[in-house]
Design a protein that fits this description.
CATH superfamily: Spore Coat Polysaccharide Biosynthesis Protein SpsA, Chain A
Bound molecules: guanosine-5'-triphosphate, phosphoenolpyruvate
Number of helices: 8
Organism: Micromonospora zamorensis
CATH architecture: Alpha-Beta Complex
Structural class: alpha/beta
GO molecular function, one term: phospholactate guanylyltransferase activity
CATH topology: Spore Coat Polysaccharide Biosynthesis Protein SpsA, Chain A
Largest sheet: 7 strands, mixed
Shape: globular
Number of domains: 1
Order of helices and strands: EHEHEHEHEEHEHHH
Radius of gyration: 16 Å
EC number: 2.7.7.105
CATH class: Alpha Beta
Number of strands: 7
Distance between the termini: 45 Å
Strand content: 15-25%
Enzyme class: transferase
Catalytic activity: phosphoenolpyruvate + GTP + H(+) = enolpyruvoyl-2-diphospho-5'-guanosine + diphosphate
Strand order of the largest sheet: 3-2-1-4-6-5-7
Length: 216
């Protein structure tokens, strides 16, 4: 049986406000360029994933919107309610495919095959249940997936892995290091670089006068 194809919702904050914990991580690189590169490399991998039929970027940022449209994604502005979970809900309401996943836009090492593996895993197991992929530290969430007809009901934010589990979603714990490697800090960026960065982020790291600090 062929794998159903997914709609993936990717929210991206206004670049001036995004990724504040990463500010100054790459010396000589404007912060907004780094925030944009992280999102562009994430989107590139999502768009290259064969399991994905539709990519919907939710953003109020004009540069992000232009980059997303140019790469082949659809774009929606943030809805009437503020914040990350409202952006996920707004995006999910705008999708057309049956299976819906929400994915954070800070995964610059993401490999399409690992995303495909996680989406396939999300379709197996108990029917009608949401699934989530915890981030590398285990406390956060990088991906939340819902079957057709089941609301995404996102609970992203601090301790979101616990919040998603408490809301009835089941964790997926496959071997997907590039999917689980979200980048919030300079140490995370160094860890992502060890996995292999997408081209936009890699170019900025190479151009930096002081490269990403090591995680050690
Ligand atoms: N559209 C939209 N995206 C958001 C919003 N808040 C966060 N995001 C995105 O959600 C993803 C995960 O959020 P965080 O890891 O907390 O990123 P962040 O808020 O940019 O980072 P910090 O400032 O360091 O907390 C990132 O891709 C953000 O760009 C929001 O209000 N609207
Ligand atoms: C948004 C999240 O966290 P962070 O900002 O730590 O990536 C999350 O893990 O739900």
């Amino acid at each position: 049986m062929s794998q159903p194809r997914w709609a993936v919702v990717v929210p991206v904050k206004h670049l001036a406000a995004a990724k504040s914990r990463l500010r100054g991580a790459l010396s000589g690189v404007p912060h907004e360029e780094l925030a944009l590169a992280l999102a562009a490399d994430t989107l590139r991998a999502v768009l290259a994933c064969p399991a994905v039929a539709e990519v919907l970027v939710v953003t109020d940022d004009a540069r992000v919107a232009a980059a997303a449209l140019g790469a082949g994604a659809r774009v929606l502005p943030d809805g009437p309610d503020a914040g990350l979970n409202a952006a996920f809900r707004h995006g999910a309401a705008g999708t057309t495919a049956g299976w819906v996943a929400g994915l954070t836009a800070d995964l610059p090492a993401l490999r399409p095959a690992e995303l495909a593996g996680a989406l396939l895993a999300a379709q197996n197991g108990r029917e009608g249940v949401r699934r989530f992929v915890p981030d590398a530290p285990g406390s956060g969430t990088v991906l939340l997936a819902a079957p057709p007809g089941v609301p995404l009901d996102p609970r992203f934010g601090v301790s979101s892995a616990l919040a998603h589990a408490a809301s009835g979603a089941l964790p997926l714990t496959g071997d997907w290091p590039s999917l689980r490697r979200d980048v919030d800090t300079a140490a995370d960026l160094a860890a992502a670089a060890r996995l292999g960065l997408g081209p936009r982020t890699a170019a900025l790291v190479a151009a930096a006068s002081r490269p990403a600090r090591s995680a050690g």
